[in-house]
Amino acid sequence: MTDTLVKQQNPVKVSMRNITLSFGGITALKDVSVDIRENEILAIIGPNGAGKTCLLNCLNGFYKPQKGEIIFEGRDIRGIRPDKAAKMGLARTFQNIELFSGLTTLENAMAARHVFMKQNLLTGGLYFGPAHNEEIKHRRVVEDIIDFLEIEAVRHHVVASLPYGMRKRIEFARALALEPKVLLLDEPMAGMNSEEKEDIARFIVDIFEGQGECYPDTPVLRDGLNTIVLIEHDMGVVMDLADRIVVLDFGRKIAEGTPEEIRNNPQVISAYLGQSAKH
Ligand SMILES: Nc1ncnc2c1ncn2[C@@H]1O[C@H](COP(=O)(O)OP(=O)(O)OP(=O)(O)O)[C@@H](O)[C@H]1O
């Protein structure tokens, strides 16, 4: 059996069925169905305005599609609150960085851990005792993630003072700090130079594969994260990283397949690759 066939038979982790999303007269997504499978990096591509970000926004509850269903862990999560989606294991980064710019790298990553914290504001105010112990545990996970993403040098820097590429990396750290089951990356390399892109590509592969006993106390790094969805415009990166690709155009799914299939699909070439070839 070929590798492709094996991939196609991987269990479905999230199933988006017949998603339609409109804003007034604009139909951003029209009857789009996408299965996100275990053990795959799934790339979503398409020209500007094709509906890629909208699809992620539906997945993590930012937008509630008018039609369709999103099945995750046996239930329809269409229209779930974003914090609930994060708690269930759907974490994402944003095309336009959405960090707390007045906080440090460490504080931004720790903020993500509040999803898991049992202590409330009152007990949290009593620094000693359970809240303190809990903080130590979460801090260890966050420090591992900071180490993994090689951002130790800016742990205590306020995010607003950092260059763009570094802020993108911190957003990645914050998403990992949620220890997700499915990681949604919206243009994690946008605006980066080729060296920075290579670093991010390496992190994606490493997180997908897992780092074993290098990080024994942080399961997301130790065991890896076997379901990653990636929106990316750089075709070289997409072809290198993705196991499968879904192509959107004007809010519709026009193709789905392996990088090889997509590369040779005439509809995709005219809709997307053709367009970029003109530039
Ligand atoms: N909140 C909104 N209100 C109105 N229209 C919206 C909203 N969000 C998205 N749209 C529209 O939906 C369509 C799809 O947008 P989306 O951001 O998903 O595209 P995209 O494929 O991610 O594009 P890009 O590659 O440029 O980021 C566009 O026409 C966009 O203007």
TrEMBL record:
Domain ABC transporter positions: 14-275
Top-level taxon of origin: Bacteria
Q: Which UniProt keywords apply?
A: ATP-binding, Nucleotide-binding, Transport
**SUPFAM superfamilies from the entry?**
P-loop containing nucleoside triphosphate hydrolases (SSF52540)
Q: Which PROSITE patterns does the record match to this protein?
A: ABC_TRANSPORTER_2
Gene Ontology MF terms:
ATP binding
Q: Which residue spans traverse the membrane?
A: none
List the Gene3D superfamilies.
P-loop containing nucleotide triphosphate hydrolases (3.40.50.300)
Protein name from the UniProt record: ABC transporter ATP-binding protein
